[in-house]
Amino acid sequence: MKIRNAANSDLSAIYDLICNLEQSTFPKSNFEEIFDLNNSNNNIGYFVAHTDGRVVAFGSVYINELLHHCGKVGEIQELVVSPENRGKKVGSSLINEMIRWAQKQGATQVEVTCNLARKDAHEFYQSLGFVHTHKKFVFNYE
């Protein structure tokens, strides 16, 4: 397994992984537009893990300048590993690469938010040294 920056040729595999994670089908044209915009942004890191030329995981980390940190903070927005590759250290390798990248960008910490229903993911993040310090609130327009 190897980790590298995501390329345009990875888009379909990433789309499938994200749709699987969210248990939803997104409009592909919107997804492509957002992917292209974000993948060309120097403050966003898109990474894939691949084996035998096949993308098996995707992760993204965003760098934000935050007043309440008086500096840069990395925020992991997406992390998904294909079901057949879970438990094989793919996710932890991807997280470690995103943490290294964020630190190189000047981030003083990396944060991650995770759906309350994903209890296994909570344990996973804590096993990697993330500390549960905040609660996220969401306002939907629907």
Question: Can you give a write-up of this model?
Answer:
There is one protein chain. The chain has 142 residues and is of the alpha+beta class. The chain has one domain: Gcn5-related N-acetyltransferase (GNAT) (Aminopeptidase, 3-Layer(aba) Sandwich), CATH 3.40.630.30. It is 34% helix and 27% strand. It has 4 helices and 5 strands, in the order E-H-H-E-E-E-H-E-H. The protein has a 5-stranded mixed sheet with strand order 1-2-3-4-5. Strand 4, helix 3 and strand 5 form a beta-alpha-beta unit. The radius of gyration is 15 Å and the shape is globular. It starts with a strand and ends in a 15-residue tail after the last helix. The mean pLDDT is 95.
List keywords for this structure.
142 residues; alpha+beta; Aminopeptidase; five-stranded mixed sheet; 5 strands; globular
Radius of gyration: 15 Å
| Succession of helices and strands | EHHEEEHEH
Q: What is the CATH level 1 assignment?
A: Alpha Beta
Share in β-strands: 25-35%
Low-pLDDT residue spans: none
Question: What is the end-to-end distance?
Answer: 41 Å
Task: Work out the count of structural domains.
Answer: 1
Describe the sheet with the most strands.
5 strands, mixed
The overall average pLDDT, rounded, is 95
Helix residue percentage: 25-40%
Number of extended strands: 5
Determine the structural class based on helices, strands and strand pairing.
Answer: alpha+beta
CATH architecture grouping: 3-Layer(aba) Sandwich
